Q: What sequence folds into this?
């Protein structure tokens, strides 16, 4: 049970680069970026606390950087930083699905803006801001928001199970 | 988030931003070789990815088949009309090939810029964020792949090998934004001499490649085809199709022309690629793998076994 969460995230991480790219490829007009693994990291950060979120984000970011490009550091930084900032783990938040989804969408949007900012700053892309918003941000937000809604219930069940297990161990 | 901007955390944030800047600065420029931990991670993840990719490709294949069946009538009509030209073209090609061979013999030249050996590979991953346009393939240095080899699909050139691991390599697509990513290209015109230029990256506004540094005196026109020239440092073979010119304009200084080139290959949906090597006469048993798919499976599973 303890390893289920990392294994799930690893699975979703691989899914993004393989299945998703084959079955739902980006077109010239719409570039939807699946951030499914990162959405799960935000869940971790909400339900387990900001520091586990930071650690998960750091490790996920490392793999994202090394596996998918040779440009290191961008995702390691942004996943860890935003994974930490997403850690608003009050009990009131945890029990309100709408709030959780809202936080996920906000953090994923922040991630899109942050990566756009970094790539723009190092002169890697020349997409104007308005085009970035319509071409990338809106589709990505809808896609990842839908994913968050989809996994909300199973994730909450999983975290409850994990919490119970930890409590049992302590007794 | 009251806890967020306490002193200690602010310092950690600052330090990590500095580390970010250093890391990006170090890795932004073209690297000859990636470090061994990166290679190791790439290879081991790559093995899992190729296992992942196969069922995905299968599902995609079924979907494409269904679409194909729907379009079969239209396509048949179109192909029939093309067949008429085909017989004439193929006899012409035969003639030209013979003529070329005899001319080369007369010149005592055995090599030309268009010669290459090729190796087929399966695409196992693609960068999901589409900022850096890279794909991973399931062939590495063990299969004879080296940096800067040309990578093509059936339609045309798509990129070059950026770096290799033992069993996987990363391909930088031509649409990637990196400055080093320049390819020497030629335009086939009505005149005897072809016109040369550089593919200078992807233009996001026009959704086309920019072919720059074209001599202003030449009669480049729309709908002419662009291919690699075989010149320049990357060592690409000549005459690989890149695309077709859609628009032309003078550059910002008014000295040379820029042309927008619509790519021949489909950059959004890449499944199989070929890696071309101009230097060696034969890349490792390509013939065998081409002949039958089962065989390809066996070859690819092999490296997994040896890493374990």
A:
């Amino acid at each position: 049970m303890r390893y289920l969460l990392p294994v799930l995230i690893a699975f979703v991480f691989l899914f993004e680069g393989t299945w998703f790219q084959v079955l739902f490829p980006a077109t010239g007009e719409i570039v939807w970026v699946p951030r499914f693994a990162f959405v799960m990291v935000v869940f971790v950060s909400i339900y387990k606390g900001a520091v586990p979120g930071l650690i998960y984000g750091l490790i996920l970011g490392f793999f994202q950087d090394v596996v998918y490009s040779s440009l290191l550091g961008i995702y390691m930084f942004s996943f860890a930083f935003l994974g930490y900032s997403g850690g608003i783990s009050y009990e009131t938040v945890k029990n309100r699905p709408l709030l959780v989804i809202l936080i996920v969408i906000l953090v994923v949007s922040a991630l899109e803006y942050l990566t756009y900012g970094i790539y723009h700053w190092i002169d890697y892309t020349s997409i104007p801001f308005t085009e970035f918003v319509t071409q990338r941000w809106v589709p990505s937000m809808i896609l990842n928001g839908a994913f968050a809604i989809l996994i909300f219930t199973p994730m909450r069940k999983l975290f409850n199970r994990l919490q119970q297990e930890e409590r049992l161990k302590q007794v | 988030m009251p806890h967020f901007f306490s002193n200690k955390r602010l310092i950690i944030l600052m330090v990590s931003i500095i580390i970010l800047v250093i890391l990006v600065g170090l890795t932004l420029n073209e690297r000859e070789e990636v470090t061994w931990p990166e290679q190791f991670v790439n290879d081991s993840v790559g093995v899992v990815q190729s296992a992942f990719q196969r069922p995905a490709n299968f599902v995609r294949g079924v979907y494409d088949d269904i679409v194909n069946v729907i379009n079969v009538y239209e396509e048949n009509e179109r192909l029939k009309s093309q067949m008429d030209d085909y017989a004439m073209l193929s006899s012409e090609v035969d003639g030209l090939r013979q003529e070329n061979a005899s001319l080369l013999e007369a010149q005592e030249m055995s090599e030309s810029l268009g010669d290459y050996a090729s190796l087929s590979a399966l695409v196992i991953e693609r960068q999901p964020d589409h900022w850096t346009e890279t794909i991973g393939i399931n062939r590495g240095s063990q299969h004879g792949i080296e940096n800067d080899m040309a990578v093509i699909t059936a339609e045309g050139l798509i990129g070059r090998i950026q770096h290799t691991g033992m069993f996987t390599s990363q391909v930088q697509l031509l649409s990637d934004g990196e400055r080093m990513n320049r390819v020497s290209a030629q335009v086939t015109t009505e005149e005897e001499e072809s016109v040369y230029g550089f593919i200078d990256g992807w233009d996001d506004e026009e959704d086309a490649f920019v072919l720059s540094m074209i001599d202003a005196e030449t009669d480049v026109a729309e709908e002419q085809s662009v291919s690699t020239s075989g010149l320049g440092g990357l060592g690409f073979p000549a005459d690989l199709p890149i695309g077709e010119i859609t628009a032309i304009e003078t550059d910002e200084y008014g000295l040379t022309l820029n042309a927008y080139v619509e790519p021949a290959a489909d950059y959004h949906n890449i499944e199989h690629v070929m890696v071309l090597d101009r230097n060696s006469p034969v890349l490792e048993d390509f013939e065998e793998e081409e002949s039958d798919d089962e065989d390809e499976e066996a070859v690819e599973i092999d490296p997994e076994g040896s890493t374990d």
About this structure: Residues 8 and 37 of chain A are 9 Å apart (CA to CA). Chain A touches chain B through 46 residues (CB under 8 Å). The mean pLDDT of chain A is 89. DSSP finds eight helices and no strands in chain A.
